[in-house]
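Whiteboard transcription, Tuesday session. T.W. wrote the structure tokens on the left side:
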């Protein structure tokens, strides 16, 4: 890897360059890190000065060693910033640790336990045994004893350990004889791996030499397949726990897929199986090419540089490359922002490309191991079944054979004879349900240069690709294998541009290429009717989709233009137009794909940020969609896109919003929108409510039917109107001015809190603040005023518990918090302050506050849309400002995309008119931006905390009812 000062102007391009191998440890000059001789003299002077003062001796020794360690590590950090070498940094810290341990050993055996010199050996194991140490890593030591160690020997080791612990090191240690090490290695694979990496530091070297000799002879010989199987199984389990993808946007550099632990596994296997001490010997053995060995060195060096920077930056053994530190590490590496990609996104792209290289190298080594096993003596094949070697023909194919459930090449020249066979390999694997032999994938990776423009334009190659993409089996699995082998990015160069690309936000959990493949996976799941419970409407619609090919192409390509200067929907549509012709799609199919990609965000944004009870929302959306076929396909694409963003992003509430938008738009496109006047429809709704309350007295029916205005009667379902009528009457009979009721719905993943209260301009602000104080995330709010001057507000909050009883208890707590704040029993500023007191403000993300005020999205209301960085209590502050500005909020849509919030408010002035006048709109914008930016606002500070009901109001015990889980 290039150092920071040698870097080319484009650091991301370093990945493509073949630089000279990293400086070997033996060539490094360690003398600037520590003057070992001086340190030993200082320690000896401490012993001399405190001969009769053991307590002072220990503290003085600790001070000397701590100072040497701290200064040495600071110098190692300075060297890392200067030369950029990750391995060099790890070597320097490892060497520094060796010297401190050696000086400590010399001190202990010279001044404290003089009889113990050369009575035991100190060895490094684990990563430390490989001569590498990160700033915050554990110090793993193995103390080797002769057969019958004395008590004094144990005390000498204890003295050393206590000094190291007091210095602040996390020391993992074991004290064993050579015989114990051999015995434990036979049964414990972790101990076997540790001893495999053992390295002598100081003490009686004969013990270390004896263990190494016996370990090779008694443990390693003849057990290669057993060790390999254990290590690969260990790796697979580690990947499973980490999410089994190397494309998580906050990767674990040590344990994650494509991280350092995967490289360590390669090192362990090579050392154990091939008996090599240096990875360079793998080139001589023909296991790796020179290019592949350089990739291995560069990957190792890069990952060590990232890890060392992380440890230095956080001051601890931080292994997760979180958003909080990605920006600073990108800066330390010298990355700069380029058009379309920020510095941090370019750094992370480099990281993911390196992780992909680690995956390639793993496959190549596994292929070499299998090949080696095939040539081994028959006795070894019984030890581990994964290395047995039997092949059989595949029907209809002469290029490929089956090797124990995996597709393999019939001979080494298959791809050279016909490059189309590279695509054919994946197609045949798909139709026969075969996994891939590592040798086949190794040969694919080494044959990528054969994928040129001629192959990309080949009709048969494109037919094979479309067959893979639209397969009824498992298209995502095959596409992922193609991507990991580098085929997808070569066959579709525009896809290659988004391979390993991350988006620096908390909403997207995966890199762009991984997101696209996961989107295809969700579509395949719906296509195979495996999502009926989750997506009842999409499951019903997909059977009637005529252009299935067009839908799959649109799903795969919808984000293909991410990272460009222009809108990725527009640029992506242009890319798709070229590719559709190549893939063999008709003109009609191409137009559908282009439209779907241009509009792929529209349905999601309308459903989540617009009032779906406002007729103009539906008419505007229908004007963009224009046909039922497009509507069906856009709904399915939207579902797939949201589902593939990451775990926990999709929920039933989003599903319900999308279904509502679909049904309303379907009705309009089919010519079913009612022409009956609004007044007539409201009267009919009131009569329906009156009829549903037939068991009530005539007086109550009249009273509670006449409470509601047109907006309520036209937008609230009859079943909810009946429930509200019972709730209001119950509160009136109990003499309650303030009441709440809650219910939950597991299918829609929301909990509903209905609040009855005296009306007040700041009501929604107080309710939102109470919800924030209770830790509830509001997703939707409907605000209605009754004819007797009360407010009936319905708040939807995200569901937190899967169990209905638990969720209802939580909802009751939120309801009580709302009542306490509204009645004045608790003060809103204080309860919010309690909630946010220990909250760390995120420095990772910067989202400039944005305010958009428009009168064109609704016939009756002004729509105010705000976008900014989310934080607890934000909605309460925004709604408080809107009420300060004498605006009447009719409804609100609250949408969170990771760290970003987009809130939409449908408002009027106090006389029910839209907001007009430039100065008034400018004032609204300025006040809203101020609150979003957390600036001081004198007008807001002077406002009362929001007591709107008498303090004596009796607390209501919220009635809880469970909504039927019937999917829409």
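and on the right, the sequence the group agreed on:
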């Amino acid at each position: 890897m290039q150092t920071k000062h040698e870097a080319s102007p484009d650091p991301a391009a370093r990945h493509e360059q073949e630089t000279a191998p990293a400086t070997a440890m033996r060539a490094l000059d360690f003398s600037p890190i520590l003057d070992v001789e001086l340190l030993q003299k200082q320690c000896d002077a401490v012993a001399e000065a405190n001969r009769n003062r053991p307590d002072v001796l220990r503290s003085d020794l600790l001070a000397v060693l701590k100072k040497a360690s701290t200064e040495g590590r600071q110098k190692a950090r300075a060297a890392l910033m200067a030369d950029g070498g990750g391995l060099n940094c790890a070597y320097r810290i490892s060497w520094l640790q060796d010297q401190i341990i050696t000086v400590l050993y010399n001190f202990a055996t010279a001044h404290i336990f003089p009889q113990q010199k050369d009575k035991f050996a100190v060895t490094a194991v684990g990563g430390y045994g490989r001569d590498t140490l990160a700033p915050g890593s554990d110090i793993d030591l193995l103390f080797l004893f002769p057969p019958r160690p004395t008590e004094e020997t144990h005390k000498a080791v204890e003295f050393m350990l206590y000094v190291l612990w007091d210095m602040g090191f996390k020391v993992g240690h074991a004290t064993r004889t050579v015989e114990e090490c051999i015995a434990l290695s036979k049964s414990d694979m972790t101990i076997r791996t540790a001893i495999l990496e053992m390295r002598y530091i100081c003490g009686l070297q004969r013990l270390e030499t004896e263990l190494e000799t016996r370990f090779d002879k008694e443990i390693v010989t003849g057990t290669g397949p057993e060790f390999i199987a254990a290590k690969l199984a260990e790796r697979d389990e580690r990947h499973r726990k980490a999410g089994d993808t190397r494309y998580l946007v906050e990767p674990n550099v040590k344990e994650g897929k494509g991280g350092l632990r995967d490289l360590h596994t390669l090192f362990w296997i090579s050392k154990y199986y091939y008996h090599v001490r240096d990875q360079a010997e793998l080139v001589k053995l023909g296991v790796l090419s020179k290019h592949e060995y350089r990739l291995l060195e560069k990957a190792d060096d890069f990952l060590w540089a990232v890890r060392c920077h992380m440890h230095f930056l956080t001051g601890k053994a931080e292994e997760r490359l979180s958003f909080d530190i990605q920006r600073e590490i990108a800066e330390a590496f010298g990355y700069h922002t380029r058009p379309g990609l920020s510095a941090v996104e370019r750094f992370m792209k480099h990281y993911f490309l390196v992780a992909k290289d680690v995956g390639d190298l793993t496959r190549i080594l596994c292929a070499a191991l299998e090949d080696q096993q095939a040539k081994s003596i028959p006795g070894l094949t019984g030890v581990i079944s994964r290395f047995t070697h039997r092949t059989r023909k595949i029907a209809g194919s002469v290029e490929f054979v089956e090797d124990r459930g995996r597709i393999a090449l019939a001979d080494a020249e298959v791809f050279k004879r016909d490059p189309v066979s590279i695509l054919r390999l994946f197609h045949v694997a798909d139709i026969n349900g075969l996994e891939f032999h590592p040798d086949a994938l190794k040969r694919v990776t080494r044959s990528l240069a054969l994928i040129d423009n001629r192959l990309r334009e080949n009709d048969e190659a494109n037919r094979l690709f479309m067959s893979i993409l639209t397969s009824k089996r498992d298209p995502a699995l095959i596409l992922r294998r193609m991507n990991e082998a580098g085929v997808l990015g070569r066959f579709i160069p525009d896809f290659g541009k988004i391979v390993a690309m991350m988006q620096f936000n908390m909403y997207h959990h995966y890199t762009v290429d991984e997101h696209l493949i996961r989107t295809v996976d969700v579509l395949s799941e719906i296509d195979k009717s495996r999502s009926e419970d989750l997506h009842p409407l999409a499951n019903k619609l997909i059977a009637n989709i005529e252009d299935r090919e067009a839908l799959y192409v649109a799903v795969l390509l919808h984000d293909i233009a991410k990272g460009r200067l222009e809108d990725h929907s527009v640029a992506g549509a242009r890319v798709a137009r070229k590719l559709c012709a190549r893939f063999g799609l008709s003109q009609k199919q191409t137009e559908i794909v282009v439209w779907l990609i241009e509009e792929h965000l529209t349905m999601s944004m309308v459903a989540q940020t617009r009032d779906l009870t406002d007729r103009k929302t539906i008419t505007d959306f229908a004007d963009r969609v224009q046909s039922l076929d497009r509507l069906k396909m856009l709904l399915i694409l939207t579902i797939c896109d949201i589902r593939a963003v990451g775990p926990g992003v999709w929920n039933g509430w989003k599903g319900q919003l999308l279904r509502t938008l679909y049904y309303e738009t379907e009705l309009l496109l089919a010519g079913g929108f009612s022409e009956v006047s609004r007044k007539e429809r409201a009267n009919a709704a009131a009569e329906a409510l009156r009829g549903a309350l037939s068991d009530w007295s005539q007086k109550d029916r009249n009273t509670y039917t006449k409470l509601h205005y047109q907006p309520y009667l036209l937008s609230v379902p009859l079943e909810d109107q009946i429930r509200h009528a019972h709730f209001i009457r119950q509160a009136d009979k109990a003499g309650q001015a303030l009441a709440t009721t809650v219910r939950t719905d597991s299918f829609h993943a929301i909990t509903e809190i209905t609040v009855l209260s005296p009306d007040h301009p700041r009501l929604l602000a107080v309710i939102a603040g109470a919800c924030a104080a209770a830790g509830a995330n509001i997703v939707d709010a409907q605000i209605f005023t009754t004819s007797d001057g009360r407010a009936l507000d319905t708040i939807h909050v995200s569901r937190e518990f899967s169990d209905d009883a638990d969720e209802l208890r939580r909802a009751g707590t939120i309801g009580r918090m709302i009542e306490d704040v509204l009645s004045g029993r608790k003060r809103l500023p204080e309860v919010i302050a309690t909630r946010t007191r220990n909250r760390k403000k995120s420095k990772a993300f910067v989202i400039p506050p944005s305010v958009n005020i428009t009168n064109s999205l609704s016939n009756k209301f002004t729509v105010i849309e705000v976008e900014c960085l989310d934080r607890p209590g934000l909605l309460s502050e925004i709604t408080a400002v809107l009420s300060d500005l004498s605006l009447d909020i009719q409804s609100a849509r609250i949408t969170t995309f990771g760290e970003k919030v987009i809130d939409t408010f449908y408002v009027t002035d106090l006389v029910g008119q839209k907001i007009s006048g430039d100065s008034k709109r400018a004032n609204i914008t300025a006040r809203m931006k101020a609150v979003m930016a957390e600036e001081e606002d004198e007008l807001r500070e002077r406002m009362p905390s929001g007591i709107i009901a008498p303090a004596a109001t009796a607390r209501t015990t919220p009635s809880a009812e469970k909504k039927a889980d019937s999917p829409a």
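Someone added at the bottom: The chain is about 55% helix and 10% strand.
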